[in-house]
Design brief:
single chain; mainly alpha; 2 strands
Length: about 130
């Protein structure tokens, strides 16, 4: 047959007939040539653990948030404006109030609040330190 040549598959190492155009294209691009789609797909697979994929996704998301910070902020503000219901929010605040009161009565919060109030009043009365 003209226009076809034998190749050795880069995946399974079988001998196959392939069109000369396919072989030339692969050589030009510096890519291996395979016997079929299944073999090519198997060889292109990247074996990564779930942890590796999650870590890569975390870095991608962080970069995306930094690049699109303004757009994301505008979209979130628009979503909040569209979906905010003051009556539902009031009900939710009332539900959470006992937890908040309990939190404010903890000794570590009281100590922090006392220190904060001293600094706040000093700044208000005497200006920045």
């Amino acid at each position: 047959m003209t226009g076809f040549s034998e190749i050795i598959c880069a995946g399974c190492e079988k001998i196959e007939l392939r069109r000369n155009g396919d072989i030339n294209r692969a050589k030009k691009l510096g890519r291996p040539i395979y016997c079929g789609k299944e073999c090519a797909g198997r060889r292109r697979r990247v074996e990564k653990t779930a942890e590796q994929k999650k870590e890569e996704k975390r870095f991608y998301d962080k970069k995306r948030r930094e690049e699109n910070a303004e757009r994301i902020k505008v979209e979130k503000a628009a979503y909040f404006k569209r979906t905010y219901d003051p009556e539902k929010a009031a009900i939710k605040r009332k539900e959470n109030m006992p937890k908040h009161v309990e939190y404010c009565q903890r000794p570590e919060y009281k100590a922090w609040k006392q220190q904060y109030d001293k600094q706040y009043l000093a700044r208000k009365q005497f200006g920045e330190f």
